[in-house]
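Structure ticket #2291
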Amino acid sequence: MGNFLTAFLVGGLICALGQVFLDNTKYTPAHLLVGLVVLGSIVTGLGWYEPLIKFAGAGVTIPVSNFGNTLAKGVLMEANRDGLLGLFKGLLEVASAGVGASVIIAFFIAILFNPKV
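Resolution: structure written out below.
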């Protein structure tokens, strides 16, 4: 039960802070999205994201900041293996399955629900 509560509280805190940010600034949700991805990348680069995952589990792997973590892990892994070329190679290598699935699912949802454009 403790793991569920910790995940709920940490994930809820991330979302609540995002909502407070949106309510008190003139930034758009797109700004917040990019900010969370960049923040996730920075926290991963500093080596703090993995301990946070061990502490909060799904509370930090569900929000969009985890996409930044995934991108940064891929870049760091490939940079260690291939040097400078790995910086470019690893950017989407680790996250490509998720990105590809998102594009395919969005395509079928658009066919099913006939969006207004």
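Closing remark: The first helix runs from residue 2 to 24.
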